[in-house]
Each structure stands twice: as structure tokens, then as C-alpha cells.
Design goal:
This protein is of the alpha+beta class and about 190 residues long. The chain has helices spanning about 1-10, 15-30, 35-45, 45-55, 60-65, 65-70, 70-80, 130-135, 155-165, 170-185; strands at about 85, 90-95, 100-110, 110-115, 120-125, 130, 145, 150-155. The protein has 10 helices and 8 strands. Strands 1-8-3-6 form a 4-stranded antiparallel β-sheet. A 4-stranded antiparallel β-sheet has the order 2-7-4-5, with no helix packed on it. The longest helix has 18 residues, at about 170-185. InterPro entries: cNMP-bd_CS, cNMP-bd_dom, cNMP-bd_dom_sf, K/Na_HCN_channel, RmlC-like_jellyroll.
Length: about 190
């Protein structure tokens, strides 16, 4: 699979610095293992897929206060909708003013929230962000930039709403945190 990436970079005559950045991305994204996880999971039945997703995300769940006291069925429903993503240091994960289509959960890494007033807050393992505009259907209220390599899980607005429709009490938990965050960022 990486051979195709190399051919693509050659064909487009990408500069060495950009090629290195792409190479580093693949190193961190796949950690030497390249296989089609989505395809593998799609072939499994629901109970087995849910068991694997819960196992793969156990560290994320363990570090997240949001999941600690939640209904295990809610946690499984949420985890089954997550998509793994990697961001490199300096990458903007979200930009202030953009329409929000996803929220993110940090499995590992450090990201900085940059507000209008140039206050910078740090987010790390177990933190989540981007939920405000999924709740308000508004625009991003701040930018978030990766300080280190960040291994994240994203949740699309459609999947977010689908899960919260099933678990309305959890919508209130997200709303409470969102209100507090809006107060803090001014």
C-alpha cells in the first residue's frame, strides 16, 4: 500500500520536505502495520466487532471522565462510530470560524486550543473537543492545533446525533461541559 503512496509522490514530483512529512505521517498512523482495518471489521458480526472496538479503545475509555460513569451501551454505541486519525505537530485539527462536522477524542498527544483572546489551553490524553458546534450547529469557537503527534478518534455530526438520540441524558452531559467551555473561552 505504501508503494502506491511513493508512486503518487513521484508522479506529482512532491518536494523532499513534503515527502518526509507524508512518510512520517504513515509511520505514526500505521506504526509499521498496513492493513485495511475497516474492511476486516466490516466482515465481522456485530457482537465481535463491538468487542474488538471496546478492546481497542479501552485506554481512551479509561482516561475519559465522560465515559467513566456512562451506560456501557452508550460507550459501545459511541466507540463503534469513531474513526481513527493522526495529526502531526503544527497541524490545525480544527479552525475557528469553520463549520464543525466532527468532534475529537484524544487517545494520545498534546493539542493547544487557541482562542480569540489568544489564551492557549492544553488538551491531552482523555480530553475531547469540537462538541460545541455539533450541539449548536454553529461555527467553531476556537482553533485547535497539534503540539505533538496526536492519535485521535473523530465522531461525525451525524453519528454524534444518532448516538445521542438513543441516549438523551448524555446530550445533557455534553451540553453542560460545552456551556462551561464557552464561559472559559469568552
Amino acid at each position: 500500500q505504501y508503494k502506491q503512496v511513493e508512486q503518487y509522490m513521484s508522479f506529482h514530483k512532491l518536494p523532499a520536505e513534503m515527502r518526509q512529512k507524508i512518510h512520517d505521517y504513515y509511520e505514526h498512523r500505521y506504526q509499521g502495520k498496513i492493513f485495511d482495518e475497516e474492511n476486516i471489521l466490516n466482515e465481522l458480526n456485530d457482537p465481535l466487532r463491538e468487542e474488538i472496538v471496546n478492546f481497542n479503545c479501552r485506554k481512551l475509555v479509561a482516561t475519559m471522565p465522560l465515559f467513566a460513569n456512562a451506560d456501557p451501551n452508550f460507550v459501545t454505541a459511541m466507540l463503534s462510530k469513531l474513526r481513527f486519525e493522526v495529526f502531526q505537530p503544527g497541524d490545525y485539527i480544527i479552525r475557528e470560524g469553520a463549520v464543525g462536522k466532527k468532534m475529537y477524542f484524544i487517545q494520545h498527544g498534546v493539542a493547544g486550543v487557541i482562542t480569540k483572546s489568544n489564551k492557549e489551553l492544553k488538551l491531552t490524553d482523555g480530553s475531547y473537543f469540537g462538541e460545541i458546534c455539533l450541539l449548536t450547529k454553529g461555527r467553531r469557537t476556537a482553533s485547535v492545533r497539534a503540539d505533538t503527534y496526536c492519535r485521535l478518534y473523530s465522531l461525525s455530526v451525524d453519528n454524534f446525533n444518532e448516538v445521542l438520540e438513543e441516549y438523551p441524558m448524555m446530550r445533557r452531559a455534553f451540553e453542560t461541559v460545552a456551556i462551561d467551555r464557552l464561559d472559559r473561552i469568552g
